Known about the structure:
Layout lengths: L7 H43 L3 E2 H4 L15 E8 L5 E7 L5 E11 L5 E10 L18 E8 L4 H4 L11 E2 L4 H8 L7 E8 L20 H41 L5
Parallel strand pairs: 1-2, 3-7, 5-8
Antiparallel strand pairs: 2-4, 2-6, 3-4, 4-5, 6-8
Helix pairs in contact: 1-5
Amino acid sequence: MYRFLLTRQWLITMLIALLLIPATIKLGFWQLHRHEARVARNELIGKALTAAPVPFDTLSPTPGFAVPKDLTWRTVTATGQYDVAHEFVVRKRTDSNGTIGYFVVTPLTLSDGKGTVLINRGWVASGTGATQYPPVPAAPTGEVSLTGRLRAEETYGASGIKDRSGLPDRQFNLINTDEQAKESGTPLLGGYLELAATTPAPADQPELIPEPNHSDIGPHMAYAIQWWLFTAMIPVGVWILARREAKDRAKQAAEPETAAEPVPA
Length: 265
């Protein structure tokens, strides 16, 4: 009854099914691992943001210090004076609504004399042209105390941003301490600070960057379940198709016999 399964067409069908099963299982685990990575990232960010603030220079003690993953987003404090002469903007950055503008980055010379740190003071809208320095609220003068989030400096390799030369004055593509140290001649502590609050509070400042979203786990677990359901449906689908063809073949085989029966007088 099921000898048709040995035909070329059905052998190819079953081979495709056998190849699809491990592929869809693997895709399901890939989505599961992405879900687990997202959950782990959310937990890491949540833990870092709720930890007690510590001085920046206790976490990033030297120039060239690479901020480790477990310290990223850690709440830190810093006290010092802004070095407005070496302020710059970072191109093609978006605000919370997706509008393209600039990040404003100003070095802060620490009051304890342990070094200088880059402060991402927030986002500003683009000016009248891409070659002109955008309107930027002035950095506070005198000594200020800051609270912010520790970030690893950006690199061309990790960001995927191309290293382009010939940019307008004081405009850059990345927040990178090595690049800025060469530009300013001032050694900079590794990493940078994403500003959250300033004391005393300035009358005007760039739009502060919001905390990262660490509650959304994304759709990856749902995708994993969908792939595994599809895996289970493959053999079921093949079985249903085989049953249907077996019935059709049986029906076709019975039709000539019915036609050959004698008609009663």
